[in-house]
Automatic annotation (TrEMBL):
SUPFAM superfamilies: P-loop containing nucleoside triphosphate hydrolases. This is Cell division protein ZapE. The keyword Nucleotide-binding applies. InterPro entries: ATPase_AFG1-like (IPR005654), P-loop_NTPase (IPR027417). GO terms for biological process: cell division. Keywords: ATP-binding, Cell cycle, Cell division, Nucleotide-binding. PANTHER family: AFG1-LIKE ATPASE, ATPASE N2B. It comes from Devosia honganensis.
Length: 376
């Protein structure tokens, strides 16, 4: 059988396929946004760097996309579809604040070097140079939101150099460009970056009357207690509700130079066993990274804890803190009621806070709340 030709609009085709499987409710605003992402993708493919005299020419930046809208409108899902459709390897996707953390770490490392001790050294150039040397063509940033003056004063030069070096930006945000760093200190110095952002990206609004993330949790019992097939069945049902019926597939989360295996991920949600997260050498930065990558987590088989699981209990405390601080929604199966989970003497105080947070994370108020930005 002759294979069907690839769709000329792969992002929209993937979106329509999800709608056809009833994994999502069709939304005209989301469909239009998928079309804008297809435009960026087509432009990127059309400007593929050419080899000249055995070397690749400098890549050409194309006009990207800045997609903004309130929480739960499907921005992350659309970015998932777009990033998966990009056919080349020189692409990166991460949370905006994680990207800026990398930039600041690069600046700090350069300052410690011999060249960095030169008062005339260009710190921004030093950070951008290895990014461009890696061949990066596409930078996808989730939740673009500027809070502090350090980032605000850095962005114009940083992205000016990235754009000049051929990097295309696709970003999602809860706010329009003109509302970035609103009421911030010395905001007039930030305005050139807003102008640059609007010049180098198409700004698209994603209006919607529904918060689709909230609908998935409305009226749900997110915690299950007990062991055996009933607990598993309850989490299976919750997982399919969160993913719109998508079974999901294994994936990875990149964290501080290592890869965290994700047993199942789909539609902005991830599913782990307790051991996958709390009986492996993971720490706060890993859990924060997971909290930034997913809107919702399903965790199977949280056991009763005590002295025999002291290290696992400590990681569980850190995990719940990270999810709670971010506002990530949690569905989980517990072997025993929350008050019987237990902890050893060393973690008893912290565990009480964890139990309090778990209780709140079942509430309608928590489940109706949007994600919180890490810098807030």
């Amino acid at each position: 059988m002759t294979p069907l030709p690839a769709s000329p609009h792969p992002v929209r085709a993937a979106y329509e396929a999800l709608a056809a499987r009833h994994a999502l409710t069709p939304d005209p605003a989301q469909r239009d946004a998928a079309g804008e992402l297809d435009r960026v993708l087509a432009d990127l493919v059309a400007t593929k760097p050419k080899r000249i005299f055995g070397l690749f020419e400098k890549p050409q930046s194309v006009r990207g996309l800045y997609l903004h809208g309130e929480v739960g409108r499907g921005k992350t899902m659309l970015m998932d579809l777009f990033f998966a459709a990009v056919p080349f390897a020189h692409k990166r996707r991460l949370h905006f604040h994680e990207f800026m953390d990398e930039v600041h770490a690069g600046v700090a490392a350069f300052r410690k070097s011999k060249k960095g001790r030169d008062d005339n050294a260009d710190l921004v150039e030093a950070v951008v140079r290895p990014i461009l040397a890696s061949g990066l063509r596409l930078l996808c940033l989730d939740e673009f939101h500027v809070h502090d003056i350090t980032n605000a004063m850095l962005l114009d030069r940083l992205f000016g150099k990235l754009f000049a070096g051929g990097v295309t930006l696709v970003a999602t945000s809860n706010v329009a460009p003109d509302d970035l760093y609103r009421d911030g200190l010395n905001r007039q110095l930030f305005l050139p970056f807003i102008a640059l952002l609007k010049e180098r990206t198409v700004v698209a609004d994603l209006p919607s009357e529904q918060d689709y993330r909230r609908l998935k949790f409305a009226g749900q019992h997110v915690f299950s207690f007990g062991e055996g097939p009933e607990a598993r069945a309850a989490m299976d049902a919750m997982w399919l509700r969160l993913t719109g019926g998508e079974a999901g597939a294994p994936g990875v989360v990149e964290s501080v130079g290592r890869r965290i295996a994700v047993p199942l991920m789909a539609m902005g949600a991830a599913r782990f066993g307790f051991a996958d997260l709390c009986e492996r050498p993971l720490g706060t930065r890993d859990f924060v990274r997971i909290a930034h990558q997913f809107d919702a987590l399903v965790i199977d088989g949280v056991p009763q804890m005590g002295r025999t699981r002291s290290d696992a209990a400590k990681r569980f405390i850190l995990l719940i803190d990270s999810l709670y601080d971010r506002g990530v929604k949690l569905a989980a199966s517990f072997a025993v009621p929350l008050e019987q989970l237990g902890a050893d003497d060393k973690t008893a105080f912290e565990f009480q806070r964890t139990l309090s947070r778990l209780t709140e994370m079942q509430s309608e108020e928590y489940l109706a709340r949007g994600l919180r930005d890490a810098a807030e």
